[in-house]
Design brief:
The protein is α/β, with parallel strands linked by helices and 455 residues long. It is 40% helix and 7% strand. It has a five-stranded mixed sheet. It has 19 helices and seven strands.
């Protein structure tokens, strides 16, 4: 055979065999990645057990919308694993026969024969067996793409899309478009316009279908399938930008384990609110305080301290520090806005120092970074410090109620740094001399004075 005919035969043979193209990640790598994501680690850290680059892990998480696009269940033992395919490749390179390979692996000879025939390499005229290429062939052949319900059922898709992203209307039926918001592939910013829509949750849509179409089984879909259609590219007929119509507006779905691990590093179990003494809970003994910050424009803030039994209020002056608003800032320097950990520690310590000893029992605060130096504060004041559970401001309801009263004097969106300490003392005096229903129409100042006289 001439050289030209031989090269033509090789090209024809290669054309008959499908090339695997660029190597793709194996299933076990992707499963390891998504199992790490389910444990709450970041996408960059989850790339390590999957043995891929951190940039690849970030791309997997972003393209999948934060949801695993494959089942994490273990494959049945009837299928060859990648480790077994590596062993087959090694034994085959040693010129061992099919039956000997099957004997060493504990598999049927027909299984080994079929594996060598179907999943051989296709890069050259000869067909050597390579484990990576064989794994690629097996995973490609095992794919059973299922048509999504929202893709095959136009009526169902229209119902879901209308309840999720449909335009709201006035009482006379005229549509209201709302603000024009461009989808940028990320969650909406703080205090930014959001898209106006009917915004039914996927769970509401799923359950409402059963009421509106009780006899039509084709009009059924789970809320999880709707989420997958929104977040996983190519899974359904819903556009990715419709995630802006969800209540959270998240462009990526966040694993639950990540939200459970969002507590501050300086908060340990022994200082959580569940360990606070019972006398603080039933308000029987004075001296247990609740604290928080009310934040205003330009990172301004005022600290609030409220005594649980008498509702007596003290306000902490937290002015901007020298250099605030100037650039560049000192790296790892103090928070110049005036409500960093050091500033809050000093302000609370100064306020508590003015109180008699029987009013210095405990302080309960949110898990904010401004209380990162709570250990130093406890040493300086003798107060026991406790923290609410994450995202549970209702656990210090007395302080939340007082903050609502203070917003009459310090509205949201205003610069709180313009108020000097004398103004804060005046507002605190106004609240402490205002009769309260919960105190039998006594004022907080009168209730505190009465407790101190009886002590």
């Amino acid at each position: 055979m001439g050289v030209g005919r031989k090269q033509q035969a090789i090209r024809e043979m290669r054309g008959m065999m499908r090339s695997p193209g660029r190597p793709t990640p194996r299933r076990d790598q992707r499963v390891a990645f998504w199992e790490a994501i389910a444990r709450g680690v970041s996408s960059e850290q989850a790339a390590a057990p999957a043995r891929v680059a951190s940039a690849v892990g970030s791309r997997w998480f972003r393209d999948a919308g934060g949801m695993p696009p494959l089942s994490l269940a273990l494959l049945s033992g009837r299928y060859l694993s990648f480790a077994e395919r590596e062993e087959i490749a090694i034994l085959r390179a040693q010129n061992l026969g099919v039956r000997e390979i099957a004997r060493q692996l504990g598999r049927s000879p027909s299984t080994i024969s079929r594996e060598l025939r179907r999943n051989a390499s296709t890069r050259a005229f000869s067909t050597p067996y390579r484990a990576t290429t064989a794994q690629w062939h097996a995973e490609r052949r095992a794919k059973r793409p299922k048509v999504a319900k929202l893709t095959s059922n136009d009526r169902l898709c229209a119902f879901v899309q209308d309840r999720l992203a449909g335009t709201i209307a006035r009482l006379d039926g005229a549509p209201v478009a709302g603000p024009t918001v461009r989808f940028i592939g990320r969650r909406h910013g703080r205090r930014a316009d959001r898209r106006w829509a009917k915004s039914w949750s996927p769970e509401q849509i799923s359950h409402r279908l059963r009421l509106d179409f009780p006899d039509d089984q084709s009009m059924r879909i789970s809320h999880e399938a709707i989420y997958q259609a929104l977040y996983i590219q190519g899974r359904g007929a819903l556009k990715r930008e419709l995630v802006a119509c969800l209540r959270t507006g998240r462009a990526l779905r966040v694993p639950r384990a990540r939200t459970r691990g969002r507590g501050k590093k300086f908060v340990t179990p022994e200082i959580l609110i569940s360990e606070r003494p019972a006398e603080a809970e039933d308000r029987a003994v004075p001296g247990h305080w609740e604290g928080d910050l009310i934040v205003g424009l330009n990172s301004s803030a005022i600290g609030t301290l409220v005594e649980r039994t008498t509702r007596f209020t003290m306000l902490l002056h937290l002015p901007h520090m020298e250099g605030h608003g100037e650039t560049p800032r000192t790296k790892n320097g103090p928070a110049l806005a005036g409500h960093g950990a050091e500033a809050v520690r000093d302000a609370v310590a100064a306020a508590i120092a003015t109180l008699p000893g029987q009013l210095r029992r405990s302080l309960t605060w949110d898990q904010g970074a401004e209380m990162a130096q709570h250990a130093q504060l406890r040493i300086a004041t003798g107060l026991e410090i406790y923290f609410c559970d994450p995202h549970s401001p209702w656990q210090r309801g007395t302080n939340e109620n007082t903050n609502g009263l203070l917003r009459q004097y310090f509205p949201k969106g205003t610069d709180l740094a313009r108020h000097p300490k004398t103004d804060l003392d005046a507002v605190a005096l106004a609240l402490n001399t205002r009769p309260r229903k919960t105190l039998g129409w006594k004022t907080p100042a009168e209730a505190l004075d009465e407790l101190l006289r009886c002590a």
